[in-house]
Amino acid sequence: MAIASFNLDRRQDAVRYLKSALEHLDSMTERERYRTRGFYYLITDDYEACVKEYGDLIARYSADASARNNRSLCFSYLRNIPAAWRKRGRW
After folding, report:
1. What's the rounded Cα separation, in Å, for the pair 35 and 41?
2. pLDDT attached to residue 91
3. What is the 3-state secondary structure of the chain?
4. Whole-number percent of the chain with pLDDT over 70
5. Which of 45, 54, 59, 86 has its CA 20 to 30 A from that of 36?
6. 3 state DSSP class of 80
7. How many CA atoms lie within 13 A of 20 on its CB side?
8. Is the pLDDT of residue 9 over 70?
């Protein structure tokens, strides 16, 4: 719901859904916890935490392409384009 709301430019709804999801982290898999927190930081403009959260996700699940893309997006919002380009990884 949060991603759909965000894609429909309903940012407040997305934040509300994510806050609700954050209350249930204990019932999620490790990967889902990283993704949920990472997306929350992305849409609340906490890009440094976003980079860290997605970086931790990539460290555990190196083939996660969406985590690499989202981390690069957070780097670009921090105006760190070289890191965004360099950190996206290649296989």
Report:
1. 10
2. 37
3. CHHHHHHCCCHHHHHHHHHHHHCCHHHCCHHHHHHHHHHHHHHCCCHHHHHHHHHHHHHHCCCCHHHHHHHHHHHHHCCCHHHHHHCCCCC
4. 95
5. 86
6. coil
7. 8
8. yes
For residue 16, what are its two tokens? 């509300």
pLDDT tens-digit map of 21-52: 999 999 999 999 999 999 999 999 999 999 99
Residue type, 88: R
Single-letter residue type at 87: K
Report how far residue 72's alpha carbon sits from residue 87's, in angstroms, rounded to the nearest whole number.
7
State the amino acid at position 33 in one-letter form: R
The burial of 62, by beta-carbon neighbours within 10 Å (0-12 exposed, 13-18 middle, 19 or more buried), is given as: exposed
Question: Packing angle between helix 47-60 and helix 65-77, nearest 10 degrees?
Answer: 160
66 with 57: CB under 8 angstroms?
A: no
The Cα 3–Cα 17 span in angstroms is: 9
